[in-house]
Structures are given as C-alpha cells and as structure tokens.
Amino acid sequence: MEFILALQSALLGDPVAKLDEEARSNLRNPPHEPLDITNPIICHLISTYYALEHSSQSTYKCIHSSTACTFPGTDEMPSFYRIERMIAEYTGVESITHDMCLTHVLLITGPFADLDHCPVCNKHWYDQIKLQASRGHNKVAWKFHTIPAGPQLQALYHDHNSAKCM
Fold first, then answer.
1. 31 and 43 in contact (C-beta within 8 Å)?
2. Rounded Cα gap, residues 112 and 117, in angstroms
3. pTM
4. What is the C-alpha R_g of the chain?
C-alpha cells in the first residue's frame, strides 16, 4: 500500500523519478520546430550510433576512427558520449537508469529501497562479488533503463509527418 500511495503522489521533481532539471524543463517546454541537422558528419555519427544499437562503445570508436581517417578534417568529431547527449538534446528523449532486481521483478525504490533481497523472488539485489570485495560498502545493483512516454510523444510531434499520423 505504501508503494501505491507513493505512485499516487509522484511528481516530476520527485527524486525517485530521477528527472534532472533540464529533463523537467524539456517536458514542460518542448521545442515546437522540426529537428534539422545540417552537418553531414553529425548526421553520419547519429546514423552510426543507431545502426550500432546493440554493439559496444568500442565498435563505435572504431568506426569513429575510420571516419576520421577517411575524411580528413573531421578529427574533431563528437565521441560516443557526446553523440548520445546530442540525440537527447535534439529529441528531448533520454533513458533513466534505475536499480532493479536481478530477475526484473521490482525496482529498488520507495518502500523497497532498504531491503537487500527482492521480496518476490528472494534474489540478492546487489552484486555479491563486488559487495564482498568492498567488505559491504559497495552496493552495485542491476540496472534497468526506462524511457518516459512524455518525451517520446513530444519527439513524434516535432516531425510533421509523424504528428499527422498520430
């Protein structure tokens, strides 16, 4: 019941929501003009980022280096992290990372935040090897990413064609 009450009283500024001030501002004041990226290198790297969706950052770095060698004068290209930030800035869509149960049953938040085990599946919430190596000081939970629906809907309205379809 405590969890249900916490959900009912949730606000955008709630620390459990993990929305920073910029994300809250973007939700309240979305851009109204369509996205226009004119720099071909930025377009290439954004396309590369999406094409490598399930690949490692090192794969992106290899393609980044190859592009820099192939096209002289592009040695100041944005890094993986910077392209990721640019996409979030352009679209307003950004994932939020939560600590979660190993079996993805519950988020480690609200009334569950002080527990060491999931009350549903009884699995440890924290990586036991890292916890033991740090003598109980380093609690590293499993991570789960969510993407709030609000910014996704707002991003769809940036494009005339997708807004018309909606």
1. no
2. 9
3. 0.62
4. 20
Sign of the torsion angle spanned by Cα atoms 29, 32, 35, 38: negative
For residues 78 and 64, give the distance between their C-alpha atoms in angstroms, rounded to a whole number.
9
Beta bridge partners of 143: 99
Task: Please enumerate in sequence order all residues whose Cβ is within 8 A of that of 29, keeping only pairs 6 or more positions apart, or say none.
Answer: none
Token pair recorded at residue 63: 């393609």
The secondary structure of 21-83 as a DSSP string is HHHHHHHHS---SPP----HHHHHHHHHHHHTTTS-HHHHHHHHHHHHHHSTT-TT---HHHH
**Kindly report the CA angle at 95 between 85 and 78, in degrees rounded to 5?**
15
Q: Which of 141, 152, 54, 56 is nearest to 104 (CA)?
A: 141
Angle CA(18)–CA(21)–CA(24) in degrees, nearest 5?
Answer: 80
pLDDT in single tens digits along all 166 residues of the chain: 777 777 777 777 766 667 778 777 877 877 777 677 888 888 888 898 888 887 888 898 898 888 888 887 776 788 888 888 888 878 878 788 888 887 777 777 777 878 888 888 888 888 888 888 988 888 888 888 788 888 888 888 777 788 788 8
